[in-house]
Specification:
mainly alpha
Length: 568
Amino acid sequence: MNDGTERVIEVDDRFACAKCARGASCYAVHRATSAVASMRRRKRYNERTTGDVREVGVEAKASGSRSGGGRGRVRGDADPLGAVAALARDGHRPTRKTFTATLSVVPMIEEYGDEADVAVWNAVAHAHCASGDPVEAERIADRMAAEGGVGVSGATHPEIIYTYARYGEANRAYRLIRRMSNEHGVIPDERHYNAFLRGLCERDDLEEADEVLRRWNNEKFDLERQSDRGGRVSKPSAASYGLLIDAWARRGNMLAARKLLQQMQWERIAPSLQLFNILIGGYLKQGNIGAAEGLFRELESSGTWDMESLGIRPDNVTYTLFLDYWASQGQVDACERIFDRMARKKVTADVQAFGTLVKAYARARDPDGAERVLDRLEAADVEPSVAVYSAVIAAFCTVGEMKRAREILDRMFDASLRPNERTFAHFAWGYGQLEDINGIVDVAKLMLANGLKLKGANRNAIVRACEECGMSIGAIHALLDRLNPEVSQRKPVWTRDGASAKSSADAPTPPESKEIAGGQAAVDAKKQGARRVTTRAFPTLQRARVIHRRAFARPVARVIRFAAAAAA
């Protein structure tokens, strides 16, 4: 029952499957879990029927028909851990039941004549981490480090520490780091602390991450800890600072990010070019061009850092950051000066840099200049991309020169490049601004000719362009259904004898003025909230839609008045 309250659904971007990303039930995970759980039961069945697991497995693999089609028997190449790994590789979220089933089949590896080594148990522990259960993963690590266990390695704990940090359990992560050296015999190093910092940064708990970095730096002053670890104490590296600098820059706190760079200088840690690019990008995102240019001058002329001895100098990414900043404002002259500086410094511009220059000309409403960038790109022997050609087409569509835009499209085909959805969306928008319905129809036909379907974003682009021409929404959908009836978004009308009647696309279009009036009335009622239709009126509205489909020539305004009166 919908009580009108909003529900917030958290989506985990680590999983490609939409259901797994929302934490919902997924059939692929359920099927894999059932398959893994049945492997041990089938193995026991094999032992009861034949008494020789290996011979049965080989026999079933060689002749599945003689063994009853393999039903109830486990294959000799059964890989339960591989099944779980395949789920994660395909973008699914294994559940706790999956990992419980995996734990039950780990002893099966030894029963088949092999040994479950450290890598196998690490995979099981990391699988629990991926499921959001680091406590169970730590228990597995304890079993590995116990007497008679397989032992732990340097790859066992980082994933557990990262999961603790990501779920806000910093105290548990600190405790595990202490237990590593005292109970598991593993000295924490850069990999473990970087996993700690990475989890906190992904959680956006940057204050706690700063505290972790401070404690890490102070370990070198703890003589007791040094003696316990045999004098081996790790210290942060440029990558460690880079995690925090990038996180502070994404949050927009450039002062904290700049302080970390100064702290690196105090700790005598050599920076990398990527750190300066992160800081420059952060300053440009805030519009602080002065601070960004100050860092750039330091890169070129060695200010507080000796860039020449460090081997650091601006690269293509550095110049592209400034190009994108000036291109967003349509400052073509500033972009050309940057290109000239790149040529003097012998920095080769890539296709992304040329695409940013095209963007500058497009923002300046200079499509001829954008087309000249294509000539320069070919002269520089840089392979063009679809995005560059699409940007040039957008520049011509912005000023209404659709014929020139079609010439660029032909040039794009000559370069053996296939236009994408954004390319045709630019054409549709340009023809829509000119109120050229025939041009919009040609764009829709071009989409179909290039293997694109008129649904989703492609259909919405055509619909918006037709709306610019003053067409009603009903006429637009009827037009698109005629162009591509296979992807019609309307269901066909069926007669009583079961034969398919004409679809809504082939039905006669009602008078446009009446449909516009009826549709506008519905939109106004929805916006102003004059009277909302309750759930009890939904069947009546559905019946009105059926009547509307069966007698399409009836004025739409009369149908809407009938539904509104029934709802009242």
